[in-house]
Please model this.
Amino acid sequence: MPKQLIKGNEALMKGAILAGCRGFYGYPITPANEITEAAAYYLPQVGGTFLQAESEVAAINMVYGASSAGVRCMTASSGPGISLMAEGISYLAGSELPCVIADITRGGPGLGNIAPEQSDYFQVVKGGGHGCYRTLVLAPACAQEMADLTYLAFDLADQYRTPAVILADGFIGQMMEPVEFTLAARAPRLPEWAVDGTASTRRNLISSIYLQPDDLEKHIRMLEAKYARMAHNETRWENYKTDDAEIVFVGYGISSRILKSVVEMMRARDIRAGLLRPITLFPFPSDELRRLAGQAERFFVVELSTGQMVEDVRLAVEGRCPVEFYGRCGGNAPSAEEIFEEVFAHV
Amino acid sequence: MFATAIEEEIDIKGYVEINTDECKGCGLCVEACTTKVLSLSPCLNRYGYHTATNSDKPCNGCGLCFYVCPEPGAIKVFKAVN
Amino acid sequence: MSELKVIHEKAECLYGNYDRKGELQHQTHYCPGCGHGVAHKLLAEVIDELGIRDRVILVSPVGCSVFAYYYFDVGNVQVAHGRAPAVATALKRSHPESIVITYQGDGDLAAIGSAEIMHAANRSECYTALFVNNAIYGMTGGQCAPTSLLGDKTTTTPFGRTTANDGYPLKVSELLSALDGPVFIERGGLGNAKQILQTKRAIKRALETQMKGLGFSLVEMLSPCPTIWKMDPVDAQRHVREVLAPIYPIGNKLDRTKDRAPRAAAPPPPPLSELPRILKLPVAPTDAPVELVKPDSEYRIKIAGFGGQGVLLLGQLIAEAGMDDGLDVSWLPSYGPEMRSGTSNCHVRLSTKHVDSPLVSRPNVLIALNEPSLRKFIATVDTGGLVLYNGDSIPTDCIRTDITMQALPFASIADELGSPKVANIVVLGAFLAATNALPLAVVDRAMARVVKGEKWLEIDRRAMARGIAEMQSTEVKVHV
Model:
């Protein structure tokens, strides 16, 4: 299969359409615009709906509507837009509506800037919106994964009836890499719970309101059990040279790419370094980290933030060995050399 | 109730039937009734409302009570047809 | 002898027993004298009369009517506060044959959801909005609504609504009628039987507007709220007629049903087999010969200049050709505000091995298309690396002896070729001549794929050849 040099953002949208996505509702924001623009270009040609909403608030609620209607659908944004969508994501989770949300993260807080950061981890992975809910979070590290993990996200979102988030930094969205599209084109299919305005679905109800405490607790417990199933079945990560690693780096997205360079630099100097790259951020590969804590002397977490995922690494490691952190933010990314020196400052 | 009305007055134009379980005694039908056959019962129903009653009296079947009533099933209106 | 027949009873599209309700399933949850029950009844009757029950999707809001789905035996979607127009938009667009009806109160539609209703109306989304205006927040216990009247004492205007603090009562129907999008807008009242029957006719016309596919329709209903108004139901109805209606005049506000044509149905979707073509996926292997065994090479290229010099395209061409040549490649642009004006740069990696980080922090090739870019990045160039600089000579304070540096007036050469825009392609030729990084035939094929238009391709080919010639005449060869 020939490859195509393509931006991560555009690869994501092509993967989505191959997965059967036929609805996109979004609002322009850098650095996610190529997703929205690809949706505007391709979706009308495949019988889908593209609509530029009046705000991210409207966009996520349009996703709520399209998902209620049984359509595979998505939106894409960046930090400030995801903040606005938090309410809608909570409703989607509460109403058990599948959809895919791409967050191509930029610098915050506030208006921040449009350069890459990984500072949306808390708001995306920990919830962001109100109530006891989680979203499935996948973190691509290359353009190929932008397509492949988005395709997977649609399947998992449907399987678990949950919103799934593609959490990628601006680098992964903006860069071009060769992508091989081996994904089979999926036909849109109406789930039996959908409300589509026909006799057979007339008794269907999409709702997240449970007025009685007992009813709501039952609903929340059901969601909780679903998240536990997701943790059991869907946790994904990549081990890179961790077999004998004494220093285990942990990073996702662009950080993992830089950290692979660092691992190579260390290996070239006979330092046994490895990388654990979480592919799902929820569920988080805590068990694998705990296992590695038995062999590693220290963990070294790198993020384009002041430290967000590192909290989950520390929770997973449970104090078995030191967990160091190095982060850059504001749109700066650490070079491999910089991280290399930083590690030696700690060792 | 309905049967009694028919027996008493064969040549009636209309009649309303109040579902006293559903009626909440708001009185809007009483206000709207063009033949003034509706009133609020002095008795309370089991939910504590003075529900509307026609005291078995027929009416002209205009149906206005039905439309002002906020409960979708509290009033049923019958009308004479030839 | 006449026969008595039922002429009015509970509509068929309302559940006989409200199973979804927790208790008292034989009656609604609405207060005695509440307008919602009447509005429900009217909508239900119209749905029955039009015979559309199976097609209806009812969108319940947040407010007292949050539980509308307890009662209507139709498809139901309950949504967030104010967002019904957005949800309805996508429901209808997903299933154009369905009949989508939103049911919103004044807080929901006119306050928190004012943006959503405005834009749904303006797009003329083909659904029907029912707007119950009782000029108060009912469910939350009597706070000021955007439609509360001046002087109204509410729990959040305890001294009465004033224009100074709270602005003016919002006339939604008039406001939306000022837009070009909507097709049918009418305000009705629930203040007596006459108003109620008139409102029913408006709801029917609104739904017919949707059924004909004409576009957005809305019916506002002035509705009593005896409990929060602290009035008995009869007085509350009078309040609708005598106090609300003079401020919010009842009647049709907009009727474009005769002027507006039904929307064309969307064409059927293409077969799945068409998707690779539509998505422009590469379907056949490129004809570029791929060498299976190559000597190890590793290019970490940084290209920098000002916006408009073709920095990003130059990088993309190198990456495209590298991919065709069987190398692993990455291309990472700067996409900040600087790309709108000022500096622009991109990172390109070509490698016979897997490219780990797409970031180029220690370039072994720097292409600097202006002096600020040269100054900015010169110190980062790896020992033994190559610098190509767009200029007659390297500024003396930028000269490094541990790397190869070549200045060429690429922009002037491009001018000679007839277009300053091809300076980047002259650079490409020079880069290829200096490094032998990629076979020229492969680069030519990539250029033919990326560059749009025969005219541009022709001048680009000349530019590349010129760049190669210029570089060869300088006798600089670099392997990195």
